[in-house]
């Protein structure tokens, strides 16, 4: 293998069950001894994905929404808290506690909240992560009907909806937050009182 490239030598040795050093180490050693030039091909690189930055300079320009789980009375019983916040004011503009996660329930909440706040077509962007309810056809059709632009987190990125996550943390780290809710009605009453206290 005297005329083989370091990469070819590396993989040929691996095929024989011999491991001496990594491919990059072989290149480094040969380079130090003047045995390999700088004509080693570069690996294809891709530009980093642009981080979409949502900016609002007034209320009702950008809303973000998400769903979190609240523990029910027994193991395996959960309630879903749907929350919509205004990015500019950080106010919770809409919320709902339900027994399950569903695109239809999300549609109902978003539609009712948009109507309550008098959102005109073309004035609002709604941001969410890429959960099944958030990317559903049902919701996409509603947003088209309302004239609301949609924005989603980048794929496989867990921190692209930080404003709603911070809202959930404020709720769950409140000193009076119960470990478990006795019923769905208990969860609804708690959230109603909490949000009334948080934003009088």
TrEMBL record:
<dbReference type="InterPro" id="IPR036397">
    <property type="entry name" value="RNaseH_sf"/>
</dbReference>
<dbReference type="InterPro" id="IPR012337">
    <property type="entry name" value="RNaseH-like_sf"/>
</dbReference>
<dbReference type="InterPro" id="IPR001584">
    <property type="entry name" value="Integrase_cat-core"/>
</dbReference>
<protein>
    <submittedName>
        <fullName>Mobile element protein</fullName>
    </submittedName>
</protein>
<dbReference type="Pfam" id="PF00665">
    <property type="entry name" value="rve"/>
</dbReference>
<dbReference type="GO" id="GO:0015074">
    <property type="term" value="P:DNA integration"/>
</dbReference>
<dbReference type="GO" id="GO:0003676">
    <property type="term" value="F:nucleic acid binding"/>
</dbReference>
<feature type="domain" description="Integrase catalytic">
    <location>
        <begin position="55"/>
        <end position="172"/>
    </location>
</feature>
<dbReference type="InterPro" id="IPR050900">
    <property type="entry name" value="Transposase_IS3/IS150/IS904"/>
</dbReference>
